[in-house]
Design brief:
337 residues; mainly alpha; Serine Threonine Protein Phosphatase 5, Tetratricopeptide repeat; 2 domains; two-stranded antiparallel sheet; 2 strands; FA complementation group F; ubiquitin protein ligase activity
Length: 337
């Protein structure tokens, strides 16, 4: 046992190093080894905790002599001490931090192995997950977010999302999670309600402005509940455009809304498989009728959008994804956010 306890002498130095600028030289493998040592110390703690009183007392005295003034308790908190030290150390490089987040949020062993990773550390890791995973890590980002939502108690997922910094990183994570295979339950129970909740029009608009039009079209094909609010937003944008007869183009007093952007978004929606494509055209026809049902161009933005969609160079919808579009639209669905 003395040999095992002698290894525990390394814990204070390991925690101190994880709090210092020395972590600038750490790579992902170093993070894995450090957390491996922490879990080994935790295993040792459990072994000694379950031993007889005489052995526990002897271990406590030995640990305190070796610099672990917290005794067995400090040994048992090894994963927490190390995890929090690394999470709070801004000197830790991004690749190493990414490995840390994955270990904390997606433990590979499951079962007992997962219990050795502190819940408080996993929650702190989830708050850092979004800005740490960018670019090509979209799928990993989505999987981490879904994993964290599954860890929440039923009904508390919305509160968890509300605690995260709201901005581009979170919106990208939500969009990726909505398209992730196997994430349908979380999408319906948490992600879509959070995105579309009453009074959240500003959130939906920020989400839609951030994402590429093609990704939004894919999201609408996958989740019909998003289509109505998104189209309502497009209808509101279209209402801000006015035709300039001298220039022969649609212009807006709102610089963030342009004819070319609106046309591109509508085109991409209309290129999705049936029944979404036909539904888009039908609702543009309804808006055209409400606008006066003009046939001549330049009088209604909806007339001009229909003319644009009926041009021969506009791609027609391809394969059938009707299994993703099972809901019908109602007038309530199409109301502006």
């Amino acid at each position: 046992m003395e040999a095992l306890l002698s290894q525990a002498e390394q814990l204070p130095g390991l925690v101190a190093a994880s709090r210092s600028p020395a972590v600038r030289s750490w790579d992902p493998a170093t993070v894995s080894r450090a957390l491996g040592w922490a879990r080994a110390f935790r295993h040792l703690h459990r072994h000694l905790r379950d031993a007889g009183p005489g052995l526990r007392e002897a271990a406590e005295r030995s640990l305190r002599r070796r610099g672990l003034h917290g005794g067995l308790g400090q040994l048992g908190r090894s994963p927490s001490l190390l995890s929090f030290a690394l999470l709070e150390n801004r000197a830790l490089p991004s690749p190493a931090r990414g490995r840390l987040l994955r270990i904390l949020l997606l433990p590979s062993g499951g079962g007992e192995e997962e219990l050795l990773l502190p819940l408080s550390a996993r929650r702190k890791a989830a708050a850092q997950l979004l800005p740490a995973c960018e670019g090509p890590a979209d799928r990993a980002q989505a999987q981490l977010l879904l994993s964290r939502l599954r860890e929440e108690e039923e009904g508390s997922g919305l509160a968890f999302l509300d605690r995260l910094p709201c901005g581009p990183a979170l919106y990208k994570a939500v969009a990726s999670a909505l398209l992730e295979p196997g994430g349908e339950s979380e999408a319906q129970a948490v992600l879509l309600p959070w995105l579309l909740r009453r009074g959240g029009g500003a959130r939906l608009e920020a989400f839609c402005r951030l994402l590429p039009a093609a990704r939004l079209a894919s999201l609408c094909a996958r989740h019909p509940g998003l289509l109505g609010p998104y189209f309502g937003l497009l209808a509101a944008w279209g209402g801000r455009l006015a035709h300039d007869p001298l220039l022969g183009e649609w212009r807006s007093t709102h610089p963030e809304v342009t004819w070319s952007e609106l046309r591109e978004r509508i085109r991409l929606l209309s290129q999705e498989p049936e029944p979404l494509a036909s539904a888009i055209r039908e609702h543009i026809r309804k808006l055209k009728g409400q606008d006066g049902d003009f046939e001549a161009p330049g009088l209604s933005v909806w007339t001009d959008l229909l003319i644009d969609l009926e041009r021969p160079d506009v791609e027609k919808p391809g394969r059938d994804h009707s299994q993703f579009v099972t809901e019908t639209w109602s007038e309530r669905d199409l109301s502006s956010p």
